[in-house]
Every structure is written in C-alpha cells, then in structure tokens.
Amino acid sequence: MTDIAIQVENLGKRYRIGVQEEKYDTLGAQMLAWLRSPITNYRRLRGLSAFSENGQAEDVIWALKDVSFTVKEGEALGVIGRNGAGKSTLLKVLSRITPPTTGRVLLSGRVASLLEVGTGFHPELTGRENIYLNGSILGMTKAEIDRKFDEIVAFSGVEKFIDTPVKRYSSGMRVRLAFSVAAHLEPEILLIDEVLAVGDAEFQRKCLGKMQDVAGAGRTVLFVSHNMPAVTRLCQRAILLEKGRLIMDGPSEEVVASYLADATRTGAARSWALDEAPGTDELRLTSVSLVNSQHRIVSVVSVEEELQLRIGYRVNTPGLTFRCAAKFYTQGVCAFATVEPTETTRDREGHYWSVVRIPAHLLSEGEYLVGVSIFSSKGRKIHYVLEDEVIVFQVTDPISGQSARGDYTEPFAGVMRPKLEWSMEHA
To answer: Domain 62-263, CATH 1.10.10.10 — does that match?
Structure first.
C-alpha cells in the first residue's frame, strides 16, 4: 500500500482531568482527614501514573477512542465535529506533539502542521528575523526561506514593518506573518487546524485561496475547520468525530449534511405530528422541506441547482384566507425573504402545500437557515404560524465555470449569486 500517506489504526488518547476536592464542614471531619492524609496522598501519587483498566475513572476522559482511517497520497481529508469532539487532539497525535494511548499512526512523507499559528515568534526580534526563526522551527531550511522570503512577506502584507520588532505589531499583523510562514511550507503531508479563523475577512479569503493551492498541488492534506463551505470546497472526503469517536466517513457533502442536520436537530426537511405541529386550532404547520429538480430532499446543494421550498400545512377551519412566507438567513443576516403574492382562501379542510421556486445561480456559498410563517394581513394581522430556523442547508460551488463566477476562482463576495448577462460595446 505505497499510495497510503496516513494510516490510523484503533487510535485512542486519554487524559486525566481535575476533579473537585472534598471539603469538610466540621473540625472533627477535618482532623480525621488529616490523619488519613498519608494513605490518601500515597494512593493519589500512585493514581497519577496508573489508569483503571476500563478507563471509567472519574478523572479520566477519552479525547479519542478507537479511531481508524486511511488517507491516500494527494488526498484532501476534512475533519469536522463539535467543539471537544477530538479534532485538534487527532492532529496533535498525527503531528507527534503528543503520543497516543492506544493504537498507532503510520505516516509516509515529511509532515508539517499549522496548529498553533505563531508558535516560536520572539517579540524582541524583527519580522524578518522571526521569519527565519519560525521557518526553522517548522522544518524549513535556510535555502528554502531565502527562496520564498519575498513571497512570504508579500502574502503577509506587512512589508513596511518587516524590520520592526514584532512586539510593536498588532495581534492581527503578527498572525498574518505567522500564517504566511507556515503556509509556504512544502511537505508531503500538511495538517491544518482552523487556520481560517485568523486575521480579518480579507486575509481569511487569502488563506482559503492558499489552502486551495496546497490541496490542488497533489499534497496530502488534513483540514480541520468549522467553515463548512471551505471543507466542501477543499476536500472531496471528510470524517465526522463525536465525543472522540469516528461516526462517519464519506464524501464531504454527505458528511457535512449529516453534521448540520445533527447540529440543528434538523436537516433540509422537517415534519411534525398533528398533535405537536406549530400553529393554532384553525391551521397547523406539518412540514417544511427543500428539494431539488428531481424532488429529492437535499441538505447540500450546488449554486447551479434549482430548488424548491415546500411548506405543508393542515387547514382545520374551512374558509381561512392567508399566505405563506419564508426568510433565508446566512452570515447572521437575512439574505432575502419571499412571500406568496396574494392571500388565498382555502375553502376546504385538509392538507395543502405552498411551493416557492428558488432559481439556480441565486444563492452564494454558505450555510442557510430558513424560517417560515403563515399569516393574514387583511384587516387585523393574524399570525397562524411563526417559526424560525426550521431547516438548514449548505450551498457549495463546484467552480465548473457555469456559475456567476465564470472562470474566476478567487473568493466571491456576497450572500446572493445572481447569474447576470454581460456584454461589451465599442463606439
């Protein structure tokens, strides 16, 4: 298996955590504890270097447990999961920063890690001197640093201050320079942990572009991030960790969809039993779903796909007049709202669906939350249903050249992505 770059077998890592010491309310109890202290301290010292066989002790936690997977040479693997799932611990074990408790890791090739950006910077040294210091710590030779020096400085954007001591840099400038050094490594295996969380918005876009270059250059990449569009763009495959265990391994879009569905307790479809459905005795919301042109429910979609939002409801009182509306939220703002153009009377009791078409090339990349409402605004406004964050879905961009970006491959701004016609005229 010479094409395997990373092989992880039954990997486990446990830590001892602190526990609250017992406190005593009476002098007698305190004296008794003092008399017992020699035996208590002896047991505590022995316990510091010994774990229980089943690992269930109160002060023991498994950060990783029975994790196994392989990564082929040139493959980009995304690693996702909630905070505390074991993602950073996995990278630290792979980087040989900490040894595993159980299992083993086999690596084929030179390994570089972007875990703690800025580790090794000295505040009294200039930016120029820190480039050489940090580059050496990360495994680069002086010849490599000499060859890439101008490129590193240009990428960081701190050319004007390169001969100024780093202690006079802002925190953002320090992070930009540190990432620039780390991003110009040329290992066979690159481990990346949340580097897109550094710097300002402009620099984050540059970071993502650099990571795309690395992944596209045939190097093996393990990419940990909470940025789901970045994971689906950079990685064809992803793994999902939960409480230290690997619970899913597959195509990145499927793994991201499963993670989003679990994180929000819903995916791109949600339904309710009638006795639990939101609404009033007159009208109840029964389902909301996002489907593609084949009428399949989709949690991860391409910007090039046409979608439909289907809102299902049960009318219990014939003759109600109302309309449905939906709001799409992303990046903390409402990207757009859509509403049925007219209020319609439902003359009969029963189930109904209101469907709105979302054209292709409208939405940009990112995660979207959808809220729905059913109301009447004729005369006195009545809200029968008002539900926020009913479903969630992810929009990705395959960069096929057919979307609004054409053959432009750099980050594309905006929460909307309309594909508009351009023309050129010459007088």
So the answer is: no
